From TrEMBL:
Residues 1-26 form the signal peptide. One of its GO terms (cellular component) is endoplasmic reticulum. Pfam families: TRAP_beta. It comes from Astrephomene gubernaculifera. The lineage of its organism: Eukaryota, Viridiplantae, Chlorophyta, core chlorophytes, Chlorophyceae. This is Translocon-associated protein subunit beta. It comes from the Eukaryota.
Amino acid sequence: MRSVQITRGVLALLLASTLLLAPIRAADSVVDDDEYADVQRAQLVVRKFVKEELVVQGKNVTVELDIFNSGLSTADAVKLEDALPAEATLVDGALEVNFGKVTVGSHVKHSYVIVFNTGSVQVTLPLARVSYIAETDSTERTLGGSSTMALYVMTPVQQLQRYALQAGAWASLGFARTPSDWRNLAIVIGTVGTALGANWMVKKVNASRVNRKRAAALRELEK
Ligand SMILES: *[C@@H]1O[C@H](CO)[C@@H](O)[C@H](O)[C@H]1NC(C)=O
Ligand SMILES: *[C@@H]1O[C@H](CO)[C@@H](O)[C@H](O)[C@H]1NC(C)=O
């Protein structure tokens, strides 16, 4: 009776150990795959950016690309293909570039100039694609994508308002600290602007009325 129990215990132990061993073997095979991936390869990292997050409709915006080889081998036949956001047109430079080789630990850079046709919109730059040969003695092309970035495109009027607010902060010598201060300042600037605009309109209407009266008087004299 006792020996039966021991046998059972041994069997249970054996079963448990095979269950424990199974995942370890799986982990071993993963390590094998990693070793395979450790074959000397190039790895390109592409950063795409614009210096300012706030840009203005109708003004030149320079898009910059920085390609870095963080791998263990030279990247060959490196090709960059970029795309424009729907709101912009290309004014200078190219969206497709062939760089040839990029050695380990080195950067290559590219830039082009675009102009946004619409304002008052948030735009996310589409990602640029890079393709290259990552292993020597291979012709297989590896594909990669760039980082991307969100921009806000101001209309020229919004840019003026921003300048006005900045000037306001300067004129108030730091008085406008809280968001509600900013809002009040914006309301004041808006009201003064509207009042000036309205006054100008009235003067213009009065002037044309005066001109019409003068013309009528001249016609009377000519009779
Ligand atoms: C905008 O870019 C175009 C093309 O590079 C250039 O001819 C023009 O002078 C630029 N305009 C400004 C204001 O920098
Ligand atoms: C416009 O003319 C009216 C009289 O016709 C006058 O009362 C008013 O003050 C004038 N407004 C301006 C801004 O000159």
